Amino acid sequence: MEYDNLLKAAERCGLFVYETKFKSRAKGLTKGNIIGIADHLPLAEKSCILAEELGHYHTSTGNILDQSDIRNHKQELRARQWAYQKLIPLERIVDAHHARVKGRYDIAGYLGVTEEFLQSCIDRYTEKYGLYAPVGDRYIVYFDPLGVIEIFPS
Prior knowledge:
Blueprint: H1 3-12, E1 16-20, E2 28-31, E3 34-38, H2 43-59, H3 70-87, H4 90-98, H5 104-111, H6 115-129, E4 132-135, E5 139-143, E6 146-150
Parallel strand pairs: 1-3
Antiparallel strand pairs: 2-3, 4-5, 5-6
Helix pairs in contact: 1-2, 2-3, 5-6
């Protein structure tokens, strides 16, 4: 999902997104119905950060900045998982396969995310599904190495 689509999704939820300079090293913050995104980031990174901040809006409560608190850490992970599912559902990996996109760098570019975000998503999917996951009844997405196998009916 592109940055513009995420902005529209935020607007539909009654959220206001502002690109700004932070005094801290933060890349994104959510408070109430306001999301701040660091203005100096490349577009793909803004998309990843905005998706995660939307994940916080949909899944988190309260101030979770203190990541030494396990409850806050769990909320952070839940928001990231929401972002992974929003930007890189397994079907999008199949789409990249159909577009004949190869290699993590090119797949990340095709999906409009950073390589780091793609790798974190793959790591999460590996934790959740194991080495592979079926997508419908025609595809299997393998996570290491990243690839798609198409199953043809006999």
